[in-house]
Write a structure and sequence with these properties.
binds zinc ion; 280 residues; single chain; eight-stranded parallel β-barrel; globular
């Protein structure tokens, strides 16, 4: 297991590996563009060279890209729907140029649609994204906190998307966000319940689909559908939950990336050190 965190690309993507090394991250995650939209800096061959030199210099070898926040693959508004499809495909292509391991994305919200209609729309969006894609960066779907009508909160919902006829032929994986799972009602506070949750994941989605973990404690109660991340051990999941998950045989092989608050420069190093300690 390697431990890392989400880092800033302020001043240029080439600054990310140094930002990661500075806080003791062994892997890292970035937004390759502003998460709120706006102009996008192209990935030129010069930038790739600079970025890869920085990766080497700071002894980083694996990183991930998170798609922007406005993604909604279930939207009935065509500009949002097709905009989301093209942005995710672009992030996969941009990631492939930079040598990114995987791009993870939220799926959006059902809005007025029924779950069945919404899933159909998400499935055909994913098929559009993957059609003809030849890059090396893998697409991951992130489990959601289930607030409102968010797509992909339960393992069953993710499985019905991943194993649909249109999507199952592609190598699409899952990013497991511990806060989102807990907010959805998966109780990972103790070893026994965490084992059960992962057993359930294996039965519905299959642990082979699990590629990485978003390590976040939760400000909200289990099943509270509140997507508010907290420092590791300071939230409602607590240390015992993270100790159990970090040492679970399926999760201990994966990369763990923090998305915890960054109010103080010490926040990231503290959370990273804590996870490193828990892994033993
Ligand atoms: Zn996310
Ligand atoms: Zn996350």
């Amino acid at each position: 297991m390697r431990v890392g965190t989400h880092v800033s690309i302020a001043g240029g993507i080439e600054n990310a590996p140094g930002n990661a090394a500075k806080v003791g991250a062994e892997v890292f995650q970035i937004f390759s563009r502003s998460p709120h939209g706006g102009p996008v800096k192209p990935i030129t061959p010069e930038l790739v060279k600079k970025f890869q030199a920085e990766m080497k210099k700071h002894r980083q070898d694996t990183f991930y890209i998170h798609t922007p926040y406005f993604i909604n693959l279930a939207s009935t508004k065509n500009n949002i729907y097709f905009g989301s499809v093209s942005v995710i495909r672009e992030e996969l292509e941009r990631g492939s140029k930079l040598g990114c391991r995987a791009v993870m994305t939220h799926l959006g919200s059902f809005g007025e649609l029924s779950e069945k209609e919404g899933i159909k729309r998400v499935v055909s969006a994913l098929a559009k994204i993957m059609d003809g894609y030849r890059g090396k960066t893998q697409l991951l779907l992130e489990n959601s906190a289930g607030a409102g009508k968010l797509v992909g909160d339960t393992f069953n919902e993710l499985a019905s998307i991943l194993y649909s006829k249109q999507v199952s032929k592609y190598d699409v994986g899952v990013c497991f966000d511990t806060c989102h799972a807990f907010a959805t009602g998966y109780d990972v506070r103790e070893k026994k319940s965490a084992n059960q949750v992962l057993k359930q994941f294996d039965k519905t989605i299959g642990l082979k689909k699990l590629v990485m973990v978003h390590a976040n404690d939760s400000k909200g109660e289990p099943g509270g559908h509140l997507d508010r991340h907290e420092h590791i051990g300071k939230g409602k999941i607590g240390i015992s939950g993270f100790k159990a998950m970090v040492n679970h045989k399926a999760l201990s092989k994966l990369d763990w990336v923090l998305e915890t608050p960054k109010d103080h420069p010490k926040d990231d190093p503290q959370n990273i050190n804590l996870l490193k300690k828990l892994r033993g």
